[in-house]
Specification:
- Helices cover 73% and strands 0% of the residues.
- The protein is flat, with a radius of gyration of 20 Å.
- The relative contact order is 0.11.
């Protein structure tokens, strides 16, 4: 594996996250009564991106050291066509998620996206996928709208 690329990319992602966090702090507070405010979501995404980039750097560094000590790669680096197909299905469903979010609402769109993603990753346990997707989409919607006072597109108004 090419751990140099992973380390370099993690540093680039860390720089992007720092820029993202800085720009998110420049956003003005909410003007229409929402207690959450428009800067919370980008600020949270910037922090998550920064933490994940640090984790990627650490894992790449640790695996590179392990490879140097053992003298060989720790895991095969081939990407199979099945992995590529799974990636394309999840990527396509993420594009559809963005497109349909305003049209059919957060709860239904998130539920469908999670069901498709869970079943793409592992075909078995359809009932568990449905329960987890429904619980997550309804739970996050309730948490964000009721407890935090934010607003999300709820259900379609056909």
């Amino acid at each position: 594996m090419n751990y140099t690329f992973d380390k370099t990319f993690s540093i680039i992602l860390l720089a992007v996250s720092i820029l993202f966090i800085f720009q998110a702090t420049q956003i003005s507070d909410s003007a229409y009564g929402s207690t959450v405010g428009p800067k919370i979501f980008p600020l949270g995404l910037g922090i998550i991106l920064g933490l994940l980039s640090l984790q990627l750097f650490y894992q790449s560094w640790k695996n590179a050291v392990r490879e140097r000590i053992t003298g060989g790669p720790t895991a095969p680096s081939k990407t199979s066509s099945t992995d590529l197909r799974k990636f394309l299905i999840i990527f396509g469903s993420a594009i559809a998620y963005v497109f349909f979010l305003e049209k059919i609402g957060y709860v239904i769109t998130t539920f469908l996206f999670l069901c498709i993603s869970f079943q793409t990753m592992e075909r078995a346990k359809l009932i568990y996928s449905i329960i987890i997707a429904a619980g997550f989409s309804l739970g996050v919607y309730y948490l964000f709208t009721s407890l935090l006072g934010g607003s999300l597109p709820s259900f379609p108004t056909f």
